[in-house]
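Thread: Newbie trying to understand structure tokens

Hi all, I'm a second-year student working on a class project, and my supervisor (Dr. K.) asked me to get a predicted structure for one chain before our next meeting. I've only ever worked with sequences, so writing a 3D structure as a token string is new to me. If someone could post the tokens and maybe explain what I'm looking at, I'd be very grateful. Here's the chain:
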Amino acid sequence: MKISCCWLYAISKYGYPPSIPDTHRAVEEMAALGFRNVELEGVKEENLKAVHAERKALKQRCDDLGLTVVNFCPVLPELVHPDKGRRVDALELFKLAIEVATFFGCETIQTDSYTPPLEFVGDAPYTEAIEFGKKFQVKVDPAFRWDDLWGWLVDSIGACADEADRAGLKFCLEPRVGEIVSNTDGLLRLMDAVDNENFGAVLDTGHQHAQKEILPLSVEKLGGRVHYLHVSDNDGQTNQHLALGRGTVDWDGIFLALKKHGFSGYVAVDVGHVPDLDAQVRESKAFLEKLAARLGV
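---
Reply by user tm_fold:
Sure, no problem. This is what the structure looks like when written as tokens:
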């Protein structure tokens, strides 16, 4: 099993997004926790450009620490903006993210489907850092058309998949609670619409368990198109990202299904927003190591 550390660790410690100095601190702390593989993130235009500008120093830092960056995640919600010009600009930023991912030698580049352009009354998902167990209320504008939004998503994700393919990177999307694509079947529908074999899934156990999915069945549905894993645990009631073993996720079922389909990608510890962060991350890494030995994965 190839184990990595998610960028939620850095966000939980330093805010959203972490500054460049804090990004350097975060990778040092990931290495101190025993990781040899990590992911990085670039949030919207300002932070993504800052990470791009700092890429040589960050790569040197990772090299010095014995770290490999295996996944890069550009956060570009304007990929689904109603204004076509804003979507085009977001795609240009995705191309910049491709440069970062290629420079670091990443295996995958990922994105999300983002929050639908609805009017949220009170809290809205992912406006700042991830918050778990939130209640959302929306108003649907009479002018809103789902078919339009779906078309924008298909066009943007298709363009991203093509760009990643040309760069030799696996492209993947993570269904998340409260976003346009929030479950396995929604992602499968998007895959059918995009029709690019390079387009795969980030299976996020925390989000999908909170969506009441049968996670081994999610693996069976996706088969060989699971490119990357984000692993955390919860009770299936909220999308908390707790240490593995502290919730009700069926870990044996997930990894035996992945073994059946020959999964060989990275399994990234996605624990965050917990008071004992370092302890829960270490606990999760040890859990995965024991699970791998027991199941032969």
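A couple of things are worth pointing out once you decode it. The chain has a mean pLDDT of 95. The two ends are 6 Å apart (CA to CA). Feel free to ask follow-ups in this thread.
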